[in-house]
Write a structure and sequence with these properties.
heterodimer; A: HU Protein, Chain A; HU Protein, Chain A; two-stranded antiparallel ribbon; elongated; B: three-stranded antiparallel sheet; 3 helices; DNA-binding (chain A)
């Protein structure tokens, strides 16, 4: 499912709303989630999951093409942990 | 300071002009549609944010850490999230700015 398919499903679900509203809602939600993580603020959605930042210490990497050493600075990367309901539903039909 | 469904509903009220009830329902529906897609085995790709994918894991041997007793961990399907380059970039830029502020002090 892509972002546009998600927008289409929400539009079907809320026929009383203007199609543009579902599109704006999806963009607003994703934008807020991205900004939140970008500010180091975690996200917790009950029944869906949580998004956190994981720390990656600095390391010496290698350029796979030339083989030369590159210093990779420390950084934070986004991490998602599925919540109970999502975990159980995804596994249920298996 | 955590972002929650209530915060997202407030934003839909402010920015999209949905009423409180609609905003709350829309946030719930947003996550429910993603859960439903994943439940049916369909991966979800949200460009600019990231992809939710499914991974089938085979059964593997496990151990009860308390008793040391061996018990198999059953085969299962799990959700993995891969942040987009854009989201990873946003997170790194923020970190770099924070470091800059620290060294400026």
């Amino acid at each position: 499912m892509t972002k546009s398919e998600l927008i289409a499903k929400l539009t079907d679900r809320y026929p009383q709303l203007v199609a543009k509203d579902a599109e704006l809602a999806v963009k607003t939600i994703l934008d807020a989630m991205g900004k939140s993580l970008a500010q180091g603020r975690r996200i917790e959605i009950r029944g869906f999951g949580s998004f956190d930042l994981n720390y990656r210490p600095p390391r010496t990497g290698r350029n796979p093409k030339s083989g030369s050493k590159v210093e990779v600075p420390e950084k934070f990367v986004p991490h998602f942990k599925a919540g109970k309901e999502l975990r159980e539903r995804v596994d249920a039909l298996l | 300071m955590t972002l929650t469904k209530a915060d997202l509903a407030d934003l839909l009220f402010d920015k999209v002009g949905l009423n409180k009830r609609e905003a709350k329902d829309m946030v719930e529906a947003f996550f429910e549609e993603i859960r439903s897609a994943l439940e049916t085995g369909d991966a979800v790709k949200l460009s600019g944010f990231g992809n939710f994918q499914l991974r089938d894991k085979p059964q593997r041997p496990g151990r009860n850490p308390k008793t040391g007793e061996e018990i198999p961990i059953s085969a299962r399907r799990v959700v993995t999230f891969h942040a987009s380059q854009k989201l990873k970039g946003l997170v790194e830029i923020h970190y770099a700015k924070q470091q800059q502020r620290r060294t400026d002090k």
